[in-house]
Amino acid sequence: MDNNRKIRPFGIRDNIAYAAGDLGCNMSFSLKGTVQTFWLVYMTMETGLLSLLLLIVQIWDAVNDPLIGSLIDADRRNYRLGKFRTYILIGAIGLTVAGAMVFLPFPNSSVVVKCILFIAGYVIWDACYTIANVPYGSMLSLITKDAGERSQLSTWRSVGSMIGNVLPMVILPMLIWRKEVDANGNPVINPETGVQVETLLGDRVFWAALIMGVIGLICFLFMIKNVTIRVDEQSVKTNENAKFNIFKAFGNFMKNRAAIGATLAAMAMFLGMNSATTANTIMFATYFGQASMSGIVQMVGFLPMFIFMPFIKKIVAKYGKKEAASGGAVVSVVGGLLMLVFPLIPNKNIALLMYVVALCIFGLGMGIYTCVSWALMADAIDYNEWKTGNREEGTVYSLHSFFRKLAQGVGPSFVLLLMGWLGYVSDLGTEGQSLETAYNMCWLVAALFLFSAVVMFIAIKFVYNIDKKTLETMNADLAALHGETVDVAD
Prior knowledge:
Blueprint: H1 12-29, H2 32-42, H3 47-74, H4 83-101, H5 111-138, H6 140-143, H7 147-176, E1 177-179, E2 198-200, H8 202-226, H9 246-255, H10 257-274, H11 276-288, H12 294-302, H13 304-307, H14 312-319, H15 321-339, H16 348-388, H17 393-421, H18 435-463, H19 468-482
Antiparallel strand pairs: 1-2
Helix pairs in contact: 1-5, 1-7, 1-8, 2-11, 3-5, 3-17, 4-5, 4-8, 7-12, 10-16, 10-17, 10-18, 11-17, 11-18, 12-16, 14-15, 15-16, 15-18, 16-19
């Protein structure tokens, strides 16, 4: 970096640009929920086989980050845009088409060809995503050294992430599902379930993914153009001679109770909420006959998460992170329990209303956890230093990420098996499922949300061990160790 070059002061331009980066990431990442639905409904892949393939690629996803991350760390070449922005650009260009490769619409292909298309498309897509996402996350520390400004970047990243998830969640189902009518324009009704038949338009999924890739590229280009690197990349070096021992790292991680609690809570969220995505879509298509509107319903349920963003600092200052998150988890448990009511209501319109109410209450509690989840992990890293004298930030974060992604693979894979066990037959599509199967999807969705909330509450309340008082003591001890002062109110 040219030390004589005048550097623009940190400001809102950096925040918006950094938010645009995560919006670009999530234009691709948000398609993950559609992958299972596309291959299950349109490509009619058998639930057991899709479960196995999904587990394989998600395990690859879990180990993919540290592999590509280490390659990026080892790169010492000088780039005109800087190393991190260069890799982000390469990954973003790849994502433009890689996301669509997972949705190549060839439903009449043989099983072998489908397996090859699925694995090859997913691996290429995931590699491109990692090449863009890993340096994007690492770049935060290079934009500014100031802790407060880094917190702003983190908050704006969450804003970009939420927007990037909500937009596809709402719009995509409207584009890719079609309500079927006969030659006279009358609704085609499934005699088993009594709802209008909806068909997944596989060709549209492919084109939608391609368009989202282009939008993501535009967001990445905006970020690259407008974000300013203020810390010399060449001054951030890793110990090239250090040897990483996975067994020692895993052992140290398992001794960090705070890290285990935060990780279990995150895994619960993915095992419950994210795993319910496919079953939820099938439920809306077969039981309510509203697959095209499922995104709007999901958005209404998760809007309460936005409520806490402006107030989370005051909430945490008054009650503490652990206390606020565990309290929110209790609210989510209540929402999960109410979720068990809607399958019992015979009137489907009232049942859908009950589902939305329960989802809103669930999202209200989950919103608190969402706002503090990464802060819980940051405190867990401090806890490791407090107890052992070793910070080991990279190890703790990488293993936390590994288990999160493992949950993202195991959860949906297991749910697909449950769907098959509960009667879902892939060859029949959504239009040929029995009423019993559609009804079973309701119970499966309700159980997954309740499971997510209960495990999250247990993890935060009884495993995570940094309450407000402990955090104040820990921060004071670490500040004394580093020769600093600390405001215990933080």
